[in-house]
Amino acid sequence: MSGTYHIPVKKDYAASLIELLRKDGAIEDLELQQFELSESQKAAIDTELDLIANNPCFLQEWEAVKQF
Questions:
Q1: 52-61 per-residue burial string, b: 16 or more CB within 10 A, e: under 16
Q2: Assessment of whether the complete model's pTM goes beyond 0.85
Q3: By CB distance 3.0 to 4.6 Å, which of 27, 30, 58, 64 could disulfide with 21?
């Protein structure tokens, strides 16, 4: 089974497990430089940032975000 997964790590034991897998060679670190955004992705991000800048009510409070 091969694939690339982007996983947010929420618990220390999960981070430790990932570290053990990396040391065993079972998983591989991918450098962030390998991930380039396309021009359309950059434009979409710019549009979203402009929308947020002009409508700050779209942003959520940090305390609400941390609950997830």
A1: eeeeeeeeee
A2: no
A3: 27
